[in-house]
Amino acid sequence: MTGVGEQSGTPGASAPRPPRRRRVLTAVGLVLLLAGVCCLGYVGYQLWGTNIGAHRAYKAERAELKHTWSSQTPIGTSEHRASPGHKVPGEAVALLSIPAIGVDEVPVLEGTSLDILARGIGHYRHTAGPGEVGNFAVAGHRITHGEPFANLLKLNTGDMIIVETRTRIFTYRVDSPPRNLTVEDTEGWVIEPVPGHPDRKPTDELITLTTCQDLFHSPDRSVGFGHLVATKTK
Predict the structure, then answer these.
(1) Does 80 fall in a domain?
(2) Which domain holds residue 61?
(3) How many domains does the chain fold into?
(4) 62 an active-site residue?
(5) Is residue 76 part of a domain?
(6) pLDDT per residue as tens digits for the range 54-107
(7) Which end of the chain, N or C, is less surrounded by CB atoms within 10 Å?
């Protein structure tokens, strides 16, 4: 018989432990929550963080390139013009602007590796240089890492592409907008000297623009073509 003020059970006994199933589900939930936060953080970094770093890199590359141009041999004297295939990977070779879609003096760097594309627009090695006979082929991101070609699929026939080097400004006209052609990244014919005609000797000054067709990683590439319409000596 229990008197008034007395409690049943053993004094000092701990509260019942939650069932094992509940503890496991709680642990799993915490792990999934942490994974979700990490994924959101990674996506946020890719979408915004890489753009901040890339735009800083663009600015630094542009400033360094212009400084190099101003300190080189003046126009009118002999000028060494190395073949694009002999340029150092990652070296800035030009500035590219596309007024119709808001691209303004983005550095064009030699090569198309991921680290190079994080600092500007990449020039496919062993394709023609700016203003040269053949195919001046470049690549750029549509999303993340500065996304210089974010609006490339909005280009229209007749839009102008301006490529500036130390001594000249080349203006190309879009013939085939990138939204009209999608290929897999293994189809190298688009950057041949005469795209689609490997045995034909080039006679014109062409430009090819490539970017990811999808906003997220995929093997599909959107490709646009144009040709040189004007050359101006600086």
Answers:
(1) no
(2) 52-71+88-233
(3) 1
(4) no
(5) no
(6) 889 899 999 999 999 998 755 444 344 444 445 788 899 999 999 999 999 999
(7) N
